[in-house]
Write a structure and sequence with these properties.
Elements lengths: L2 H16 L3 H12 L13 H5 L14 H17 L13 H12 L10 H10 L3 H16 L10 H11 L9 H14 L6 H7 L3
Helix pairs in contact: 1-4, 1-8, 2-4, 4-7, 4-8, 5-9, 6-7
Length: about 210
């Protein structure tokens, strides 16, 4: 099973959610928020919310699989993120590292964003190893993104699902995969969000 399959399935589920009529969508999001703090499958009322049309290869017989955890967390956290925000909080390309950078810059009020307290929380998330611990730190981060001043900061949730899937990789042949996810978070956090001079020239028609 490939990471891309998890990402695609999460994207399909989010699209299904966003296409629902307003009242139905609000009810579905409220139901998903109840899943926070629970393991996939614990709440029967959520089975259809994350298992609908899930490929059999994602599913496990003994305990929730890495794919089930990844999709479940992405959908329940999206429901938390969307609450109180009118515009969609799922934004392709706005990875976790980029979103945290935006939050740190907003919270720093002109000061050095690298000193923002949110980065300590991000570090705690990035060093968490067990999926329930990752879930706990991630929930706090999503609540901060949702409540950001000047409006919530959106996140690429299909990419988050892919990241969460890869963070759970325990195959010794691919031991570097979780470290690569964390490295990507750091790269996105510290990448200069401003366009390079040549890109600015293109924008200005020069």
């Amino acid at each position: 099973m490939k990471t891309q399959d998890v990402k695609m399935y999460a994207a399909q589920q989010l699209h299904r959610l966003q296409a629902l009529p307003d009242n139905q969508r609000r009810a579905e999001l409220a139901k998903l928020r109840h899943g926070i703090g629970h393991a996939p499958g614990e709440l029967p009322e959520l089975w259809g919310s994350f298992l609908l049309e899930m490929p059999e290869s994602f599913q496990s017989r003994s305990a929730p699989s890495a794919a089930e955890w990844a999709v479940y967390l992405a959908l329940t956290l999206y429901a938390v993120h969307q609450q109180g925000n009118d515009r969609p909080m799922n934004c392709p390309g706005n990875t976790l590292g980029r979103a945290v950078r935006q939050l740190a810059e907003r919270n720093s009020a002109g000061q050095d964003w690298t000193e923002a307290s949110v980065l300590r929380r991000f570090n705690a998330l990035a060093t968490a190893e067990e999926i329930t611990e990752i879930s706990h730190h991630l929930r706090g981060m999503i609540q901060l993104l949702s409540a950001a001043k000047d409006g919530g900061i959106p996140l690429d949730y299909p990419q988050l699902a892919a990241d969460l899937y890869e963070l759970q990789c325990t195959d010794p042949r691919y031991a570097q995969i979780p470290a690569n996810v964390r490295l990507q978070w750091g790269q996105d956090l510290y990448r200069d969000p401003k366009p390079a001079p040549e890109e600015k020239e293109k924008e200005n028609g020069l």
